[in-house]
Structures
1.
Amino acid sequence: MARQTPFVIRLKDRDAEKSEVEGVAVRIDPGSRETGIAITADIAYPLTATPDVIVSRRGLYSLELRHRGSQIRDKMHLRAAYRHRRRSRKTRYRAPRYSNRQRPEGWLPPSLKHRVDTTYSWVRRLQKWAPVTEIHIERTSFDVHALSAGVPLQGIEYQQGTLQGYEVRQYLLEHWRRRCAYCGASGVALQIEHIRPRSRGGSDRLSNLTLACEPCNLAKGSFPVEVFLKGEPRRLARILGQAKAPLRDAAVMNATRWTLWRRLQEFGVPVHSWSGGRTKYNRSRHGLPKTHSLDALAVGDVPDGTVIGGIPTTVLLVSCTGRGTHARTRTDKHGFPRLKLPRTKQFFGYATGDLVTATVPTGKNAGTHVGRVAVRSSGRFNIRGAHGLVQGIHHRHVRLLQRADGYGYARRAEDPQISAPR
Ligand SMILES: [Zn+2]
C-alpha cells in the first residue's frame, strides 16, 4: 500500500514499461468554493445492431476539493489590520514605502492563488497515481465560438434543449450579472427576454436579448422597451448600452480558471478547455443531478452515441485544511502577544492533521476511532472522524495511518438512484 487516503497501491512485480495500460482522462470543474475532479475512461463496446459501437464514459474516481479561500481572505485582512496598527503607532519614524508596491504580472490574490495551487497539486498527484493521457477543464462559462457571434440565433426559446441554447443562457447570465435587467432583482428565476419584441420585428440576435424576472417579463409583454421604461431614461440607456457591449467584457474572463489552465499545460499531456454551457447541456441530456463531482464527469465533449455510464458510488471529499501556522504566539484583539504556543508541532511522534487510528480498550472512549488527530502536549489527543469528535485519547493507543498533508478527508455517497452502472 502506498497511501491510505486516497487508497493507492503500488504493484511491485511489474513496471509501467512491461504493462499494457489504457489511458485515463482527468476532468475538472473549477468552482469558487469547491472543485470537482473526475477520472474517466471512454470504453467502446461493439454491438451487432446499429449503431455498431457504443462508447461508455466510465467515471473511475471522483473527488470534490473544498477550498479555503474565505479563510485565507479573512486571515489576510487580519494581518493587514495588525500591520496597519503597528505602523500607525507613534513609536519611531518609518520612511514611507512607495517603491515596493508593484505586483508582478499575473498576480492573483492569495485566496484565489490557493485555488489554482491546490487544484494543480491534486492533478499532479492523480497523474502520479494513474496513467493520465489527457486533461479536460471547464475554462469559460460559455463558448464564444458556439455562439457564432453576429449570426442570428433562430427561435432560441425553442432551443433550450440544444447546446446552443445552453451557451446562450450562460452568456446572458454572465453578461447581465445574473440580474433582471428591468428591476435589478437577483436570486430569482430569470427568463430570456427580447428587448425589442419579436412581434415588432425584434431579432434573436444576442444584442436584442436580456434577462428578466417573471413579473417584469409579463409586465413588459410586447411593449417596446422605450414605452415600458418611459419614466426611467437612465435605466433605459444602461440596458441599451449593455446589450451592445462586446462579448469579451470583464465578467467573461475568469482569471483563476485561465491561470489554472495555463499551469496545467506543464504536465505535458493535452489540456482541452470547454465551456460551462456544454457541461450543463451534457449533464441535463444524461439526466444527472447537479453536484460538483457529476459536473466534472460531464466536462468536455460527449458525442452522440456516447453514454455516461458507471458513476462512482462514493465521492472523496477533500477539504483544504492548511498546515497550521508559523506564528508561535496567539494575539489579543489589539495584536499584542497573549499566549505562547509550543516551539514544536509534534508531540509523541504525532502532529495535528495526521490520519490515525486509535484502539481504546476501556473507559468511556472504548472502541476504535479513525480520523484526523489534534495533538496536545499533555499526550491526550483529540480525534475527529466520520462519527464526530472524541477527546482525551492517550497517545499510546494511537497508531499512525498517514502523515498530515494539508487536507482533511471524508466520503459521501453519490445519489444511489443514478449510481446504477450501465
Ligand atoms: Zn424584474
Note: The radius of gyration is 27 Å.
2.
Amino acid sequence: MANKGRKRLYSFGAATVIFAAWYFIHSSNVPNDKVTPELVIQDTVPQYVPKYYHGIIVDSLEVYEGVIKRNQNLANILNEYNVTDETLYNLSVKSKNVYDVRKFGSRKKYSILYEEKDSLKYATHFIYRPDPVNFVVFDIKDSIEIYKDQKEIEIKEKELAGDINMSLYVDMMENGGHVELVNEVAEIFGWEVDFFSVKKGDTYKIIYEEKYVDTTMVGIGLVKAAYFNHMGDSIYAFNFDQGDGGDYFDEEGESLRKTFLKAPLKFSRISSRYSGRRYHPVLKRWKSHLGTDYAAPRGTPIYAASDGIVTHARYKSNNGNYVKIKHNGNLATQYLHMSKIASGIKKGIKVKRGQTIGYVGSTGLATGPHLCYRFWQNGVQVDALKVKLPPAKPIYNENKLEFDSIRSVFTERLDQINIPDRIVEDLTASI
Ligand SMILES: [Zn+2]
C-alpha cells in the first residue's frame, strides 16, 4: 500500500513535487509529519494553467479577431480601444525597425487583446497575423514593445500513393495531394520523367511530412523518400543530407539530378560570349547574343550537354540545322548552325550526356563554322557559362553506411505501400 502511494506521487511530475515541498516548508500551521503526501497532492494543490494566445497570457484579457479592410490603418483599427495618439505615434516610429505598420496588407488577419473597464475597451496588444505561422506582436500595455514570432509547427509524417491518369498534378490533387507536394515530386523526378507529357499508368508513392499549426495544415515539410514507376521502370528517391542541405539519391547513391558538360564539344575556343548587346557580323547591326559561340572545325562532334529528351531536330532559316534538348522541367539546351544532325537524333528520343547529336557547321545565319550553344532556364535564355546549378554529387564514401540503412528502411516501407484502386464508374449503369 505505502509503495503504491509513493509511486503515484512521483508520477505527478517535477512541478508538483516542487510545489509539495514548498507547501511543506511554508504551511507552518500544519505539522509536516502529520500531512501525508497523498492528501497534499490530491486536495490542496491548485492546478493553475494559464491561458495563452500567441504566447501571451490572456487570463484577464478579451480577444478580438478581425481582418484588415482596404485602406484601414492601425489608427482606425484601434479606434474604439482607447489608444492615445502618443502611443500610436510611438508605435509607428518604433515599428519601422521590426515590422513597419504601413506594410499591413488588406485581408490579412489581426487580433486585439484588451481589458474591459466600465464598458470601455483598452487595448494591451495588437497582433498582426499575415499567415498561419508568422505573427507580429505590438505590446502597448506599458512601454511599447514590438516583436516577431511564430506559431509552433507540428510535423506529421504522411504517405500518399496513386496512379496517373490525366497528369501528375490533376491526379495527385484528386488523391488528396497538395500543390507543394506535386512540385516537389516533379522536381525530384524531373530528370527521369517528363511530367509534361501524360504517362497513363505511371504510379507514385511518397513518404513526406506535413506541417500543422493548431489543426490547420500549413504546408509540406521534407519529402523523405519517394517512388515513381515510369513506363514500367522503377525509380526510387531517398533524401539524404551530406552537409550541403540535402539531395535526392537513387538506390545506387547517385544524385537524381544530372550534371552538365562544361562545353558541348572538344577542340574549340569561345568566339563570342552571351551578351545583351553585340555587333552582328552578318546583319551588320547591334543585336543581343543570347548564346555562347564556340569556333571549331567543320564536322567537330557536338555532344548533348546532359541527359534529356530531344524536342527539336530540324532546319530553320536563322538557326540552320539545330537540336534542342529538354533536360528536366525547367532546363533546356539548344545547338545551332550544325553542318548536319547526327543520325537517329529526332524529336522525342532520349539522349545521354556526352552523346553526339550533330556536327559543327555554318548553316543558317553564320559567317564561319561554329556552334552557337544556348541555355534555357524556366523558358528564358541565360548565359550557359554563368548559370548556377546545384551540384549533383553522389553519396560520399564516408556516408555510405548511413545512407544504406536509410535506403533499406525506406525501400521496405515504400514497397509495402499499396497503390489504391481507382473507383471505376460503371457508365453502363447510369443511362
Ligand atoms: Zn551564337
Note: The CA atoms of residues 375 and 381 lie 6 Å apart.
